[in-house]
Write a structure and sequence with these properties.
single chain
Length: 244
């Protein structure tokens, strides 16, 4: 908590043009040059605070709120740096950050549980009879994997929504984001393919799959900047939305 208080104070200094520490001196011109609203860096600090407070994640909305604070708001700030300003594009950037974090959670379920952190919604765990404190026990392996797959299905909804923001980014930025979207979502596929027994191994995407993901990202970018600009993007119905 003491370290968090220091980071919060230094972040406030950076967004107020009073930074002293090197990392925050670097943050200051980024925030200023790109006119990043101060609440986005502060939202990221709140994500750290949620971990410090050991916040319980009872519902998927709790998990999505956490995902926004540790990743969704980062996606928004990156989109602003890339030139996006309209709320529609920023919502899609937020969706991609949330998808990334849900994938992280699914990949690291056992590693997180080993240090006392459970980000899977406890009501989902209750539905399959798994107390959060027993996630790592062998008898719950299949049930926990089922909940993990459910979380990955949720992540897929956000990856799909994020696609519709690519058309609104400059072409080089769009390609980079499309590549990250393809490669990172494939981590979820590796988790799925590994099955319950592979949960103790950290999923990663190999070089061949990364190259395939990059090729698909090129196609995604071309599609988004041609057909995507001529058609109405799919609505974000039912997705968590960051505050205005």
């Amino acid at each position: 908590a003491e370290r968090l208080a220091v980071v919060l104070a230094q972040t406030l200094d950076a967004v107020s043009a009073r930074a002293i520490e090197p990392a925050f001196l670097a943050l200051e011109p980024v925030v200023t040059t790109h006119a990043i609203p101060a609440h986005y860096p502060l939202d990221l600090i709140e994500g750290m605070a949620m971990d410090v407070r050991d916040m319980p994640y009872r519902t998927i909305d709790d998990t999505l709120l956490y995902s926004y604070h540790v990743a969704g708001c980062v996606g928004v700030m990156m989109a602003i740096i890339m030139g996006a300003r309209d709320r529609t594009t920023l919502d899609r950037a937020c969706d991609l950050g949330i998808a990334f974090q849900l994938t992280n959670i699914a990949r690291d379920v056992l590693a997180d549980a080993a240090v006392g952190r459970v980000y899977l919604p406890s009501d989902w765990l209750a539905e399959v009879g798994v107390p959060p404190s027993e996630i790592g026990q062998l008898q719950h392996q299949d049930a926990v994997h089922g909940v993990t797959l459910r979380l990955l299905a949720e992540a897929d909804r956000y990856y799909e929504s994020a696609y519709h923001g690519i058309a609104r980014l400059p072409i080089r930025s769009a390609l980079a984001i499309a590549a990250a979207r393809r490669v990172y979502s494939d981590i979820g596929n590796v988790v799925r393919e590994g099955g319950a027994s592979a949960q103790s191994k950290r999923a990663y995407v190999g070089s061949t799959r990364k190259m395939l993901g990059l090729a698909r990202a090129v196609l995604d970018t071309v599609s988004a900047h041609t057909v995507g600009r001529l058609t109405r993007p799919a609505p974000r119905e039912g997705l968590w939305t960051m505050p205005a």
